[in-house]
Each structure stands twice: as structure tokens, then as C-alpha cells.
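Technical note accompanying the year-one report. For the benefit of new consortium partners, we illustrate the data format agreed upon in the data management plan: each record pairs a sequence with a C-alpha cell string. No post-processing was applied to the example shown here.
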Amino acid sequence: MNPLSRPGVRLMDRFADQVHFDDCKISRGDADKELKQRTKHLDKLWDKILENIGTYYAGTDASLPLSGRYQAIAASILLSGRVERWHARHVAGKVTAPDAELYAIRSAIVNATSRDDCMDIFIFTDSMASARQAVNPSIHSRHGHSVAVCEALQTWFTRKDGQSITFAYVPSRLQWDLHYKAHDRTGPTPSTSFDSLRMQAALSHGTSWNVLFQDPEYRGRSFLQLKTVDGAVAQPGGKNNPWVHFANMSSPQLYARMCRCILNHAPIGSYYSQFNLNDGHTSCMCGCPWETRTHILTCKRTYRSPRTCKLRQPTTLCYLHSFLEMNPKAFAFRLAPLAGVG
């Protein structure tokens, strides 16, 4: 572990009052109005910066090609007054977009803090996550950039009193002047980050998983195939796994019942009969002698339909989730099954 990562020595432990984040959230409902307000705020901030001698400001940006054949680009431009002092365009390697953004931020800060007349620094970026990562020297992908930033800022802060750095958020949709200029520069050698390799592996395995999932023998013939909100058949691949989405919005108990229903591996009559459990009792609470998954999902005498929907065989994950919310006893254990063989 780098010495700068130790509690009490970390940059934000020692100089938190000199590191500022000028952030904002753009809501979907009123985006145009909020973007106009953000533009006015940035223009005023820029005018204020121009009034102060010794203030350096930088636009940083990154570009991640959609094709895996090309590498990411990290670009920075540093100014003081209205004069461009330095610029660079770095080949960041096969990395994620936040990695490349971090590279751009690092190069701007290291250059600015090396200047004797620099008293304040403003970094204009469209990635506040990377800005916060820049001052976090703990272990993470490309943390070498963060360590370099922390070393440069700690040295700069201790050189004289009163210095500060501000990270200002610029939504990329604005194409705001200074931030937009950070696209045309040149720079050094590439490398590959752990996060990028992990992302590529996840995409590759997700694709393979989806192909295997089409085979009923792999998927399981009792697997309940359902659709997502957009009408597509739910597929397992990657972090966008639709079942995981419902796990995040459910209690562990409800999600467990959902899994039992989808897999048809549940404490119900048909399952007990298949594995010779519960002393042959296969009836439903409604009196039906044969309790199956389909019966539970359509039994009007025992179970309620979700809100305004009619009780039916589910076709979507949303419907099944709502059904289980309305019927907490569905696919739940009532009593421990009696001893049996299986």
C-alpha cells in the first residue's frame, strides 16, 4: 500500500477544506432548463476565474472508441488568463472511460502544480466520479494516477497557504467552450487497466452465457421463461441481468420465492411427489389434489391477482414480481416436509 493511502495521511484527511467539488445533477424531467442554468453558472465561474491572477484552469476529457480495436484517448488543455499554457493528448490504452478521464485529470493537475505562480486550480470535467477518484489514493483500477495527483497536490498545498483546487462538472451535452477544446491534443504511450480487462471478460462471458441459455438442456426444461419491460426475453448476461434488477428491489424472502417459481424448484405438491417427500401429500390449500406451479399462478380461490391485472400465467418479470408481492405465501415454506426418500 502506498504511504499516502494511510488514514490520517491521505489528501482528503489533511486538506479536505482545500479540495472542492462543484457538482450538479441533471434530472430527466427538466433537463433543458437545468442545462441552461448550468451553462450560465459555468460562464459566471469562468469570468470570475479570469479576474484572478495566479489561477490556472483546465479542460479535461476522454474518448473511448466503441470498437475494441482502438484505444482510449485522454486529452487536457491548461490555461491561465486567456492564454493557453500547455496541452496534451494521451493515448490511454485499452481502458474504461473513467480510467481515461482520470488520466486526463492527472496530467492537468501535475502540470498546473509544477508552476510557481499557480495559486488556484479549476478542473472542468464531465466525469465527477473520476474527479473524486483522483483524490482517493486507495487501491483501485489505475490508482497510480490517483497517487500521482495526491503527491502533486500535497506538495503544492504545503508549499504556501491559501491554495485550493476545484473540480467543476460540465455535462458533455453542453459542448461548453473550454471543455470542448480538450479534444485535439497529442501524447505518450498506452497501457491496459484491470477494469478494462474485467469488462472485456464480462462481455465475452455474457455473450457465451446467452448462447448456452438458448439450449433447453442447459437452461432446464422447467425454467419459466419471461419477458422484460421492453418485451425482450430475459437473458442472463452481464451486469444488466434482469433477475438481478428485481433482486435489488425485493426483499431476500420475495426474491427467494421468485427463484423457486422460475426454476420450479419449490415446496409445492408436484415437487414433493417427484422426490417422494411429504408422505405423498400433493394437494393445494384450495382443495385441488395436484398442486403445480401453473395451478398456483392461476388459482383464484387461494391467490390474489396483482392490482388491476387478471390472474393468469405470467409472461413478464414485472407481473411475477407483483404477483409474489400480493401473495406472500406463494412458493413459501409452510411446514417442513415430512421425512421421505429423495
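Partners are asked to follow this layout when depositing records. The chain has two domains: 3-192, 223-326.
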